[in-house]
Design brief:
399 residues, alpha+beta, 35% strand, eight-stranded mixed β-sheet, six-stranded antiparallel β-barrel, 8 helices
Length: 399
């Protein structure tokens, strides 16, 4: 398997490669221990208590396996990208599992999506500075350190944070991966675990699939609920079982979304559908992992969705299918209970008893068919504008 280099990217990187004096061919092995006060168990305890709360859903978590047992362990526990240095290993792994492959060749990391960036060995203040000088000059920079220290890691994250260049870090243990992914409460953009231990691969897989972030939910006050006729609404059927207090953030504006709960609650009219969120109209926004948004009409089989609980915790789920059907609709208008603003926001939903919004007053949520002015519901506030789902600094008014 040959990884093709884009001509333009390759040319610019070759120029950069000639300019650098510290980039050398790496014989990748175990990356040295991170400096972290206390034992690994102490660190994990602090993490469970909330000392480390950065969500990992938008991070790249890959494995560079040494052995077929590591390949199997990684993939069985949710790792979707493996990294190798030769065609033979890629071909052999491809016969075992169906995943994406990265490639390390000639001091460069080639990603499955076509991005490419230099591999830099940081072992001194000078080499750290040379790595930082690459900020904004390539798609990514992959850092290898024989002795990671927290301060250099913080320096790298801070330097690259405001640029287009992503930072990947090679690590040797899951503990190292956790620290690198949460440095400065932001972390590197991705980690590549180099290991011959299947247990490390399993642990990293569990980390990547179970990690969650938290969003701040705000109380809104319902000002009106009124039927508005027929329209196309979207049911998002996920590949996960959702809780009764779990659903999706949906809004007619990306700046004010409400938490539409799943159909996990029992109903006297229809059977429970705990995998489903009757989310809203085709033009509504829904929140995605990593803080992005998407129109509900764009949710399709295999795409990612963000499941949100009434306490603000989130997790990434996979869409099994999206059902668009013509149904009677209702407009729910609301305002912020504590902002003092008179501006009204809204969301359009199917007018059905099974469509419920999260509420601080009702554990099972409020059905749109019984909702009335003065009821309180839960949602999110984000004053950013959006361009193809990404946050941008721009003034915008959506009505």
């Amino acid at each position: 398997m040959q990884v093709e280099r884009g001509t333009e990217v390759h040319t610019s990187l070759e120029k950069e490669k000639k300019r650098r004096v510290c980039m050398k061919t790496m014989a990748f092995g175990f990356v040295g221990s991170l400096y972290c006060k206390g034992t690994g168990a102490d660190y994990c305890t602090r993490r469970r208590r909330g000392a480390v709360c950065v969500g990992l859903m938008d991070k790249q978590i890959w494995v560079k396996p040494a052995g077929k047992d590591v390949v199997t362990a990684a993939v069985e526990n949710g790792i979707s990208t493996l990294v190798f240095t030769d065609d033979k290993s890629i071909e052999e792994a491809g016969q075992l599992v169906r995943v994406s492959f990265g490639r390390i060749q000639d001091e460069f990391l080639y990603c499955p999506d076509g991005r490419v960036g230099p591999v830099v060995h940081v072992d001194s203040a000078d080499s750290q500075q040379q790595a930082m000088d690459l900020a904004g000059k390539s798609d990514l920079v992959a850092i290898v350190a024989n002795d990671w220290r927290i301060i250099p890691a913080e320096n790298l994250v801070a330097k690259f944070q405001a640029t287009k260049t992503q930072v990947f870090a090679f690590v040797g243990t899951v503990l190292e991966a956790e620290v690198m992914l949460t440095t400065l409460e932001v972390g590197v953009d991705g980690v590549i675990l180099e290991t011959g231990d299947p247990n490390e691969a399993r642990a990293l897989g569990r980390l990547s699939t179970s990690s969650s972030s938290t969003i701040e939910l705000t109380e809104f006050v319902v000002s009106s609920v009124k039927p508005i006729g027929m329209g196309d609404r979207v049911c998002v059927d996920t590949c996960s079982l959702l809780g009764e207090k779990e659903g999706m953030m949906v809004g007619s504006s990306s700046q004010r979304m409400v938490l539409v709960l799943s159909e996990a609650a029992k109903s006297e009219y229809v059977p429970s559908r705990p995998f489903r969120v009757n989310a809203g109209t085709v033009s509504a926004y829904c929140m995605l992992p990593g803080g992005r948004t998407k129109y509900l009409a764009e949710q399709t089989m295999g795409s990612s969705a963000l499941a949100v609980s009434a306490d603000g915790t989130t997790r990434e789920v996979v869409v099994g299918r999206s059902k668009i059907e013509r149904r009677p609709l209702v407009l729910v208008e609301f305002s912020e209970s504590s902002s003092g603003s008179n501006r009204t926001h809204g969301v359009i939903l199917q007018n059905a008893e099974t469509v419920r919004l999260a509420s601080p007053d009702q554990a099972e949520g409020l059905s749109v068919t019984s909702m009335k002015p003065g009821d309180r519901i839960l949602g999110s506030v984000d004053n950013s504008a959006r361009h193809v789902g990404m946050k941008i600094n721009e003034s915008i008014l959506e009505t």
